[in-house]
Amino acid sequence: MLRIISFEGIDGSGKTTVANMVYQRLKNRFSGKNIVLTKEPFTNEITSLIEKSGWEDPIALTLLFAADRAYHLRELINQNPDVILMDRYIYSSIAYQSALGIEENWIETVNSKFPKPVLTILLDISPNKALQRIQKNDKFNFKEKIESLTIVREKYLELARKEKNIVIVNAEKSLNDVVEEVYSIIYSYLLTL
Ligand SMILES: Nc1ncnc2c1ncn2[C@@H]1O[C@H](COP(=O)(O)OP(=O)(O)OP(=O)(O)O)[C@@H](O)[C@H]1O
Ligand SMILES: Cc1cn([C@H]2C[C@H](O)[C@@H](COP(=O)(O)O)O2)c(=O)[nH]c1=O
């Protein structure tokens, strides 16, 4: 069984930075466990198709992200991890692709063969603040408009109201405070294994 802890949130919420810092601390504290840090999208080939698609067709995007995920999970199984820290996972598809107008039920069905995350850290931040942070770090060629990120954020918050394993963390706090909070949530989970 793959135990996946996913990091979710709108672009610029701090997922990659926080996941990396928390991973370093967890690796030192739980040196006997095989903790893997990874991110989605995973494959260069599918990422390039996603970029070529122009980020507008939610059906194509849902299917491409799911194909990437299927390949990614097969690679992860081979690493025999105790726990996987995943920078984006299924809830990214639900939040982002449903924000483009596609039915959430269908996105859930497309992703229904993948293991659900045991825990999800939702880094919540206003789109304004998030966009200020990534102005200089934007790696992807897509529209990072405040309007669209506002819808994505609302989709994430809706998911958090439905799914008990999603923990909302205020990502507007200082980096140290966010890392401390996320570390302690995951630490408590790992002690139960
Ligand atoms: N709590 C914080 N306070 C201030 N700056 C932060 C905080 N967290 C992250 N940052 C900074 O914000 C920028 C974006 O962070 P990061 O790339 O980790 O976000 P992300 O959620 O992974 O973004 P994306 O989804 O676009 O890849 C980085 O420059 C990072 O150093
Ligand atoms: C997994 C996944 C990702 N996306 C979107 C979300 C982001 O805008 C980009 C990835 O960018 P990052 O800077 O590497 O986080 O892809 C998506 O729309 N659907 C998904 O399933």
From TrEMBL:
Source domain of life: Archaea
Q: Which residues form a coiled coil?
A: none
Location of the Thymidylate kinase-like domain: 7-182
Report residues binding ATP: 9-16
Q: Name one GO biological process term.
A: dUDP biosynthetic process
Keywords per UniProt: ATP-binding, Kinase, Nucleotide biosynthesis, Nucleotide-binding, Transferase
One Pfam match: Thymidylate_kin
Q: Which GO terms describe its cellular component?
A: cytoplasm
Q: Name one GO molecular function term.
A: ATP binding
EC number(s) on file = 2.7.4.9
Q: Please give the catalytic activity noted in the UniProt record.
A: dTMP + ATP = dTDP + ADP
Assigned protein family:
Belongs to the thymidylate kinase family.
Name this protein carries in UniProt: Probable thymidylate kinase
